[in-house]
């Protein structure tokens, strides 16, 4: 084979891969925390594009949101299931992927939006709070990425939601930002290990998002500050984050091992 023929073959293979990655129609997308807020929006967006959805929710308190999201994505013509589970137990992460495989035969894209915020002075944080924040923000992410790496089909995609506080010089969020920080390294390590199978691994770091997830921790004065802190003004809108995640797990497949800060200039680095 001549050099030119070899280049044409490489170009052809690359073009084929790009086209396959652009289209989520028929692909199986598993979203941890996919019932509401950012996860719910992602579920609906992917459903509209023809994906098959595995929508995870944590507990009974989120069941109604999960059922509504399921009804919405089915109304868009998508095949979908909901799966409940406390993902701080590794066995429930395994069971989540098992259920996806039983229903759809495998998983192509795995997205983790699970997280918990605690705003509290360092000296007042209890051991119980520390353990809970560690389990939800760090342990879940680690074993979710691990199981996705084991179970995803070739050329799969993994994306985790972290926080822009990773680039902030601030107090009061020691356990929130502190337990999201390891996920950057998990992302880098996994991307290096899974890359030979064509699997990209990324993280997205939004600024404070205009959802109930944010307001439960903040005073009125703090909300005013956070709204004024971004260069572009205002809180992060989930409608500005969802397209970025959707890009990273489709056309942006060539980006891997990276944490992308998307926050209107709330923090930079």
Explain this structure to me?
- With 269 residues, this protein is of the alpha/beta class.
- Helix content is 49%, strand content 16%.
- It contains nine helices and seven strands; from the N terminus they run H-E-H-E-H-E-H-E-H-E-H-E-H-H-H-E.
- Strands 3-2-1-4-5-6-7 form a seven-stranded parallel β-sheet, with helices on both faces.
- The radius of gyration is 19 Å and the shape is globular.
Question: Which structural class is indicated by helix and strand composition?
Answer: alpha/beta
The end-to-end span amounts to 46 Å
What is the rounded Rg? 19 Å
For this structure, what is the CATH class?
A: Alpha Beta
The level of helicity is 40-55%
Query: How much strand content do the residues show?
Result: 15-25%
Largest sheet: 7 strands, parallel
- Arrangement of strands in the largest sheet: 3-2-1-4-5-6-7
- Low confidence ranges: none
CATH H-level superfamily:
NAD(P)-binding Rossmann-like Domain
Overall mean pLDDT stands at 93
Order of helical and strand elements? HEHEHEHEHEHEHHHE
By DSSP (H or I, 4+ residues per run), the number of helices equals: 9
Task: Compute the number of structural domains.
Answer: 1
Please identify, by name, the CATH architecture. Answer: 3-Layer(aba) Sandwich
Shape: globular
CATH-defined fold name: Rossmann fold
The tally of strands reads: 7
Any descriptors?
Rossmann fold; 269 residues; alpha/beta; single chain; 7 strands; seven-stranded parallel sheet
């Amino acid at each position: 084979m001549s050099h030119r023929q070899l280049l044409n073959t490489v170009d052809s293979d690359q073009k084929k891969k790009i086209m396959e990655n652009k289209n989520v129609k028929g692909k199986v997308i598993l979203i941890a925390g996919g019932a509401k807020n950012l996860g719910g929006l992602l579920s609906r967006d992917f459903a509209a594009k023809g994906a098959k959805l595995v929508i995870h929710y944590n507990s009974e308190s989120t069941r109604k949101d999960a059922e509504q999201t399921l009804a919405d994505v089915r109304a868009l013509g998508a095949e979908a299931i909901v799966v409940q589970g406390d993902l701080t137990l590794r066995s429930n992460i395994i069971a989540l992927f098992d259920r996806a495989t039983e229903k759809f035969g495998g998983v192509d894209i795995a997205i983790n939006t699970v997280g918990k915020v605690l705003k509290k002075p360092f000296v007042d944080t209890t051991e119980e709070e520390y353990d809970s924040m560690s389990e939800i923000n760090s342990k879940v992410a680690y074993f979710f990425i691990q199981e996705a790496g084991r179970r995803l089909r070739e050329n799969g995609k993994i994306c985790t939601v972290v926080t822009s506080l990773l680039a902030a010089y601030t107090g009061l969020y020691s356990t929130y930002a502190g337990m999201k920080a390891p996920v950057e390294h998990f992302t880098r390590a996994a991307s290096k290990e899974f890359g030979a199978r064509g699997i990209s691994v990324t993280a997205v770091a939004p600024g404070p998002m205009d959802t109930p997830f944010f307001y439960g921790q903040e005073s009125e004065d703090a909300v005013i500050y956070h709204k004024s802190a971004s260069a572009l003004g205002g809180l992060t809108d989930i409608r500005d984050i969802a397209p970025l995640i959707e890009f990273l797990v489709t056309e942006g497949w060539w980006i891997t091992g990276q944490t992308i800060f998307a926050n209107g200039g709330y923090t930079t680095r």
